[in-house]
Amino acid sequence: MTINSVNNVSFSARNPEAKAMKKANKEQYFKYLSQVNANDALKMSVGREVEDGKLKSASAKAFLGGLVGLVGSQLLMRGAANKSIALDQVGKLTDKAAKGLANTIKVGVVANVVSSVALVSSAIIDSVNKSRANKTAHARGFLNDGDYSKFTSKQEAYEVTDMINKAHVN
User: pLDDT tens-digit profile of 124-156?
Assistant: First the structure.
């Protein structure tokens, strides 16, 4: 009989077989993660390359436009606010200057809203692309997102994912 502890001091971590098993399980897990990512990438494109490319391009353009617009609008509003403070400190903030700066800030706010809408639309486009890929995943030989939740054991998930990965990557 193997002694794992004496006086509640555990020696089981020194078991080389347990270490080897733990390392093998970690390697299997990381292999599984890689294969799930490969399955997702292949699921998105195989059999629907043109549609996937168009949607990814539209999503990237919307994201970039939203990001640039957001940064630009923030800089515009900050510059107008700083100019307003500077003019007020020296006593040269006239009504005409205040109205001009207020209009600049309004433009910045509108640009901020438009940029936010572009960022949200980027996420929506990406979501639509994933749902379309999931819809026809089985017909093209891939697992969709709902299939991963149906596995009863890790080993079953590893085996099925490995089989699909080998069928499409090789």
Answer: 999 999 999 988 888 888 888 788 788 888 778
β-partners of residue 6 are 9
* Partners of 9 in beta bridges: 6
- Residue of 84, 76, 62 whose CA lies nearest to 109: 76
Residue type, 120: V
pTM (2 decimals)? 0.70
Using an 8 Å Cβ cutoff, are 115 and 73 in contact?
yes
How far apart, in whole angstroms, are the C-alpha atoms of residue 99 and residue 94?
Answer: 9
Query: Kind and range of the H or E element at 9?
Result: strand 9-10
SS (HEC) of 35-79:
HHHHHHHHHHHCCCHHHHHHHHHHHHHHHHHHHHHHHHHHHHHHH
Q: Is 139 helix (H, G, I), strand (E, B) or coil?
A: helix
Alpha helices (runs of H) in the chain, residue ranges in sequence order: 16-45, 49-90, 95-135, 145-148, 154-169
Tokens of 108: 């910045």
Residue 92: both structure tokens together: 């040269």
Q: How far is CA 41 from CA 7, 37, 107, 169, in A?
A: 52, 6, 40, 11
